[in-house]
Design brief:
276 residues; Rossmann fold; eight-stranded mixed β-sheet; 8 strands
Length: 276
């Protein structure tokens, strides 16, 4: 099994050169564009396999962003034996769409993976969703929200992932939460923190203590509500780290903990192979 070596360069920024997915496939056609899934497969992967899978959603405030945001994490997890995917979804800057479309596309992405599991060589019952910031909102929304389903989706196929891996995620869209002014007409149905239920999957959360967008108390509230339903929710906080820290100076530490979480669920086997 190959080892992925990450170079941490100037000012603690992560530089990942020449990372390319194994394939890019269209998972959804919309009025604005075809949306693609960027797929990283384990070495020697075949369509007849049934590997665990994770789908990552990029951050960018529902405004901008790129699937390449999570290429480094996806490449590493593929090297550990998972199929890892990075989903494109509609954003305001590129497509003039609202936050609703972000969630609709996130749900469509999970449904597409589950519906095409045999072709993709993945286990439809071992699909994790991951994301950072607004992408963390999209990932958690696929698990928590009942509404915001695309009219073209087959609603008989579940959009609910089997695990969540969340990096400084947007949980609270209420009056004191993130993005309220953009979603105030429908925030109660849109905010994952306010829609936790008995069928939530296990989750792990990574958050900096000096995040100016997501207070630690918000993640603590999410964890407490998960606990009320008897659901696992691991919370990892990182002293003095700001928003977006996970792709900078704490890339190694957060990905290592994500590896341990996924291993505990049976998605990965053996010890982490991540190297600084």
């Amino acid at each position: 099994m190959k080892h992925l070596v990450i170079s941490l360069l100037i000012a603690g920024s992560l530089f990942s050169a020449d990372i390319e997915p194994d394939k890019i496939m269209v998972y959804k056609k919309t009025d604005q564009a075809e949306l693609t899934m960027h797929i990283f497969n384990p070495e020697g992967h075949k369509s007849s396999d049934k590997t665990p899978c994770i789908v990552f959603f990029f951050g960018g405030g529902w405004v901008s962003g790129s699937p390449s945001h999570f290429y480094p994490q996806a490449e590493y997890l593929a090297s550990r034996g998972m199929t890892a995917m990075c989903a494109d979804y509609r954003t305001k800057k590129k497509y003039e769409t609202s936050p609703k479309e972000c969630v609709k596309d996130g749900k469509s992405a999970i449904r597409w993976v589950r519906e095409n599991a045999d072709m993709l060589g993945v286990d439809p019952n071992m699909i994790a969703a991951g994301g950072g910031s607004a992408g963390g909102h999209v990932a958690s929304a696929t698990a928590a929200l009942d509404e915001f389903n695309d009219k073209t989706d087959d609603l008989e196929v579940s959009c609910r992932p089997n695990a969540l891996v969340l990096f400084n995620p947007v949980f609270d869209n209420g009056p004191k939460g993130y993005g309220y002014e953009r979603v105030n007409d429908y925030w109660r149905q849109f905010s994952p923190l306010h829609n936790i239920h008995k069928d939530m999957p296990p989750a792990t959360i990574f958050l900096g203590t000096k995040d100016d967008l997501i207070p630690v108390s918000t993640a603590e509230n999410f964890k407490a509500k998960m606990k009320e339903f008897g659901k696992r929710c691991d919370l990892h906080t990182y002293k003095d780290c700001v928003h977006g820290f996970f792709n900078k100076k704490k890339f190694y530490e957060t990905l290592l903990e994500a590896d341990k979480f996924l291993t505990s669920l049976g998605y990965l086997e053996g010890k982490p192979t991540l190297e600084k």
